[in-house]
UniProtKB/TrEMBL annotation:
InterPro entries: Homeodomain-like_sf, Myb_dom, Myb_dom_plants, SANT/Myb, SANT_dom. It is found in: Nucleus. Keywords: DNA-binding, Homeobox, Nucleus, Transcription, Transcription regulation. GO terms for molecular function: DNA binding; DNA-binding transcription factor activity. Residues 93-149 form the HTH myb-type domain. Pfam families: Myb_DNA-binding (PF00249), Myb_DNA-binding_2 (PF23082). GO terms for cellular component: nucleus. This is Duplicated homeodomain-like superfamily protein. One of its GO terms (biological process) is negative regulation of abscisic acid biosynthetic process. Residues 96-149 form the SANT domain. It comes from Arabidopsis thaliana (Mouse-ear cress).
Length: 215
DNA sequence: CATGCGAAGATCTTACATTG
DNA sequence: CAATGTAAGATCTTCGCATG
């Protein structure tokens, strides 16, 4: 299988390269390989392994290992295990468990917010945070704004909602790659890539501080 | 240090409102 | 009337802290 070792950072670069060179790009593997200083064969093999893994996970055949925490999952390009493994073990009538929002997703959410404005959850979901449904985005926003409103109070615990700024370079949407090819449209990755570069060019960290939202 | 408990936080569901 | 957004609340997880 994987004849070469892939480090976490290489995985990260791999994701970014996949976004950069979406499916259909000429000499895709060669160009990705070039970025990673690996051979095209290695890159292609790595991709196929990932696709296979995700397919297995998606179909409920395997449990995601414990070490697969959120950040690792995000770095690897998909969401935390929860959604996949829940329900397959026990009955189907159990209440569906929530998949924790990753930092990346939240940052993408902030970008979407900036781009489409408060209330257009559908556009944000379709074009930016493609791993979440409009309802999920709306729900997340709901609690996010509640959190913002109560920000003056002393916080007992830190929260993902405390992130009000986004460094575009850190919010690469790896988790939105369409690894399985089963869901999502092929335009998603390029769209997100465009979004990220757009914001990366226009904004510095801190620019998201003041959205001027009204509740 | 390990454990138990309460509070806070995160996510989902559902009902209702709004809009085209 | 269907699609979408908002509000409220239920449920589950995680954190912080006291206690032994």
């Amino acid at each position: 299988m994987a004849s070469s070792q892939w480090t976490r950072s290489e995985d990260k670069m791999f994701e970014q390269a996949l976004v950069l060179f979406p499916e259909g790009s000429p000499n895709r593997w060669e160009r990705i390989a070039d970025q990673l200083h690996k051979s095209a064969g290695e890159v292609r093999e790595h991709y196929e392994v990932l696709v296979h893994d995700v397919f297995e996970i998606d179909s409920g055949r395997v449990d995601v290992p414990d070490y697969m925490d959120d950040s690792a999952a995000a770095a690897a390009g998909w969401d935390s295990a929860g959604q996949i493994s829940f329900g397959s073990k026990h009955g189907e009538s159990e209440r569906k468990r929530g998949t924790p929002w990753t930092e990346n997703e939240h940052k993408l959410f902030l970008i979407g917010l900036k781009r489409y404005g408060k209330g257009d959850w559908r556009s944000i979901s379709r074009n930016v945070v493609v791993t979440r449904t409009p309802t999920q985005v709306a729900s997340h926003a709901q609690k996010y704004f509640l959190r913002q409103n109560s920000v003056k109070k002393e916080r007992k615990r830190s929260s993902i909602h405390d992130i009000t700024t986004v460094d575009a370079t850190l919010a690469m949407p790896g988790s939105n790659m369409d690894w399985t090819g089963q869901h999502g449209s092929p335009v998603q990755a390029p769209q997100q890539q465009q979004i990220m570069s757009e914001f990366g060019q226009q904004l510095n960290p801190g620019h998201f501080e003041d959205f001027g939202f009204r509740m």
